[in-house]
Amino acid sequence: MNTRTKADRATTTTAPASSRSRCNGACNGKCRCPKPDLTRPDMADLSRYPLVSTIRAVSFDADVVTIAWSDDGISRFHHGWLRENSPDPASRHPHSRERLVSPLDIPADLRPESVTLESPVALAVTWDMAGQPVSRFDAGWLRAHCYTRGDFIANPPRHLASLTPQPAYWNAVMYSDAMLRVWLRDYLETGWSVISGVPDEHDLSTVLGARIGVVRSSNFGFQFDVMSKAAPISNAYTASDLPLHTDMPHYELPPGTQILHCLRNDADGGESLLSDGVAVANLLRNEHPEAFRLLSQISVPFRFQDVDGDYNSRHRIIECDAAQNPIFVNWSNSTIAPLDADPEIMPNLRAAIRLFLTYLQDPRFLITLKLEAGQMLVFDNRRMLHGRKAFDPQTGGRHLQGCYLDTSEVLSRLRMLERDSGESEEPVEAVAVA
Ligand code: OGA
Ligand code: ZN
């Protein structure tokens, strides 16, 4: 790495951080310390990136620009990475905010001509080839996108037990954006929620769905009625018990959120079941690594068939990220197709499935509740397994209406609410399988 660069010297001469530190910013404009320019470069990005730290010094070598933060952290960014993320209007459309520059437009040997700290929050890179823009980066944006600080964990390990959400109310979630934001945060943390005070009206599952985002239609329709039917196309449309399952593993992408509005539930039985499959997967990883390995490496087939469709997809029962942290689960006793694993593996795979299903019912994980008319159960269908106990239609009625959304919709809604609120919390990010 170069020792001191032109950029280092420029930074050192202005030295805004050390001047400020004399009065610690507490002068409130009264003392004569030089006030740094904190005008932040426009990154063509609607998110707010908190100014966790200002930049103390910058330097560069043949490969990377190195940033020394005022809180003593260090970040390194490769030259090509900085160039492709340049927010100038030729590289990122100022209105669509989408990228215009392609990796193929960036010469592999492009290097900075100079790297300058224009202020403690603005880094400017001038490139060593004609026709290149000046790339100006905001310190908050750089810090948020840093990929070399050791404290960055892509998908931190999830919980080791099922969690309990806060009580939630229809009017609050439907008519207050602030409450919707609080509710979405809580729901994403616990993986499930019960909303009370829901009016006794049909078609409200999709009203909540549309308040969050784009409702996802499926072979069960835009909205589906869960009740005991004469000619059921699914075990869900009977009065039988439904063992813990995830919905729609017969699709290539099972939906992330399911909403079930309870219109009536006065028959004997019919209690709802939930269990945090990702928490159980974490337990298996720690205590039964061989079962975990089989469930997270071998894909199994699922199939749904009726007169209108024939759907088939394969999934691993436990899906992990690149660090082997479990992030999604897939299991439905109703739609699992005949297992087709190698014969040497089949007995162990079946034993691993039995172990997984057994732990799902452990009291640390199993949640049992009886929904009442006027309540809505919302849960993360890729993390929580759900089910119900059998009910007796001779003793009363049971009717739920439901719909699905993808997790992308939930995360987008929360990001927009946080953008509008002006308050920033830990950013919400999608997780990715290995
Ligand atoms: C379903 C389902 C649960 C219930 O429709 O997929 O799991 O409580 N229903 O009836
Ligand atoms: Zn279901």
Describe this entry's structure for a reader:
The chain is α+β, with helices and mostly antiparallel strands and 434 residues long. It folds into two domains: 6-144, 2-Layer Sandwich (NE0471 N-terminal domain-like); 168-421, Double-stranded beta-helix (4-Layer Sandwich). The protein is 25% helix and 26% strand. The protein has eleven helices and 23 strands. The protein has helices at 6-14, 16-23, 79-84, 139-144, 170-175, 177-190, 205-212, 277-287, 289-297, 346-360, 407-421, and strands spanning 55-60, 64-69, 74-78, 112-119, 122-127, 134-138, 168-169, 192-196, 215-216, 224-226, 242-245, 257-265, 268-269, 272-276, 299-306, 309-316, 318-320, 326-329, 367-369, 375-380, 384-388, 391-392, 398-405. Strands 7, 8, 9, 10, 12, 20 and 23 form a seven-stranded mixed sheet that branches. A hairpin with a 2-residue loop joins strand 15 (299-306) and strand 16. Helix 8 crosses helix 9. The model is unreliable at 1-22 (pLDDT under 50). Bound molecules: N-oxalylglycine and zinc ion. Zinc ion binds at residues 236, 245, 247, 386.
Write the layout of secondary structure elements.
Layout: H1 6-14, H2 16-23, E1 55-60, E2 64-69, E3 74-78, H3 79-84, E4 112-119, E5 122-127, E6 134-138, H4 139-144, E7 168-169, H5 170-175, H6 177-190, E8 192-196, H7 205-212, E9 215-216, E10 224-226, E11 242-245, E12 257-265, E13 268-269, E14 272-276, H8 277-287, H9 289-297, E15 299-306, E16 309-316, E17 318-320, E18 326-329, H10 346-360, E19 367-369, E20 375-380, E21 384-388, E22 391-392, E23 398-405, H11 407-421
Parallel strand pairs: 7-8
Antiparallel strand pairs: 1-2, 2-3, 4-5, 5-6, 8-20, 9-23, 10-23, 11-21, 12-20, 12-23, 13-22, 14-19, 14-21, 15-16, 17-18
The structure holds N-oxalylglycine (OGA) and zinc ion.
